[in-house]
């Protein structure tokens, strides 16, 4: 039987959670990192442009889109730090994968959970190339919605099993520690950022405030550390003191976007950085010495969302974790869209009960 192209599978939040749990969180993150790595190896085939962002005093709403010539993917995503005070998510998202040949959608899915997963998978993938070999201890500063995903991804891909947690709200750190209990981590809740980074070979910053901030000062970062800076993702929002950047080897996803939104917005527009795809496909070196400080200035890029959409699309068949949406008008005669409307009206009238 030929599939009806007007019917599009939709993955709800409930179905996404079931898909992740049925797969296993660690396997899902590992598989997703594999998809991202493969797409970074063919970086040159993708359409690439900084995301379209609508900024307000309260946050940002963005569209992130790309295509590899065969498929097209986009994500709608917001970032509203004040939402937490109202009991709302800071970040929400949904996305679509489509066939370039016909323009027909192939998948519509929630991406709030999926974005958290792909961000963590990308962070851990980058660390595989940039972190010191044998690293086992990671500090996570900012223990909100992203923290557990980061921890599990780094455990799955790098073997990280010691966590040092800090958040200005200790309840967030306790939440993170509780959620990660029984997953093979030795967890310490710390009293300050300086305390958290002590002895850590990897430092992840994932804070939410939409402002220039100094989560890490230069004196807190010793030699040989890898910094995974996740929280800086829009103009005017940073986490690291500028002096840290000046002594770090800096790696980014897509330089034109990161220079607008990342930590490197603090630096000169021509300050040297290396795109992660160049490291993954062997054009550039990652970590070059045990003493080097490496920084992954992560802001999130559309290719990563594209990879996540591809992975869900490939993983979905046979799981039952979607519903069919009658999303596209599909008349028997493609030129007769109005006739389809008339016939629907006639059918509706024919089904109405006659007056007694």
Task: Note the main attributes of this structure.
alpha/beta, about 25% strand, single chain, Rossmann fold, 11 helices, about 350 residues, elongated
Task: Tell me what you see in this structure.
- With 356 residues, the protein is of the alpha/beta class.
- The protein folds into two domains: 7-113 and 305-334, 2-Layer Sandwich (ornithine cyclodeaminase, domain 1), CATH 3.30.1780; 131-300, Rossmann fold (3-Layer(aba) Sandwich), CATH 3.40.50.720.
- 34% of the residues lie in helices and 23% in strands.
- It has helices at residues 13-23, 25-41, 112-130, 147-158, 170-180, 193-197, 242-246, 255-261, 276-280, 302-315, 337-351, and strands at 7-11, 52-55, 60-67, 71-79, 93-99, 105-110, 137-141, 162-166, 186-189, 202-205, 212-216, 226-229, 238-240, 249-252, 274-275, 294-297, 323-326.
- Strands 9-8-7-10-12-16-14-15 form an eight-stranded parallel β-sheet.
- α8 (255-261) links the parallel β14 and β15 (274-275).
- The protein is elongated.
